[in-house]
Amino acid sequence: GYGWDGDVANGGFEEVAPFGGYGWRYSTSAGVDRVTNATDAFEGNAFLRLSDTGRVHQPNPATNGQTVTVTLWARGATEGDILRMTIDFRNQKMWSSPLSGDIHVAEIGTDWTQVTFAVDAPVTTNDPIFHTRLTLIAGAGSTVDIDGITMTTN
Question: What is the largest CA-CA distance in the chain?
Fold first, then answer.
């Protein structure tokens, strides 16, 4: 499920893994749909639709002191739909509490709009940072389409 060189895997949602996750963790979660429609997609043939607190996440390698930058394209079903994006930094225990992180909240319109945000990993932590987790969540009552995600670490 990891991408290459700090980028996410399958940021355009074009592929489907045998277990249903295609690089993103959720499989058959409520409020998460992979939509295949080249006319409606920002790029390619598919995009992700999150509705009413539906969420996905993807872990990727990271280390102390790195800056993680995420860029994605999003649109809402209605003006003012909410997309919450979290980048957190964790040790080697995948399900442990984050060592640090940040939440970015975007109010989305009905046209595809580019959203970019960056988070700095702490330089010093009690445990070394092993990975970052990018989580995307639709606000309560919101429906948000997402496509073309890239992530860089430096």
Answer: 48
What is the full per-residue pLDDT of the chain (154 aa) written as tens digits? 566 777 898 899 988 766 555 568 765 678 999 999 999 999 999 999 999 999 999 988 899 999 999 999 999 999 999 999 999 999 988 777 899 999 999 999 999 999 999 999 999 988 899 989 999 999 999 999 999 999 999 8
Instruction: Enumerate residues 6+ apart whose C-beta is below 8 A from 137.
Output: 50, 53, 54, 55, 83, 84, 85, 86
Residue whose entry in the numeric block shows the structure tokens 């940072």: 129
Indicate the pTM of the whole model.
0.91
Give me the count of residues in the chain: 154
Q: Are 137 and 83 in contact (CB under 8 A)?
A: yes
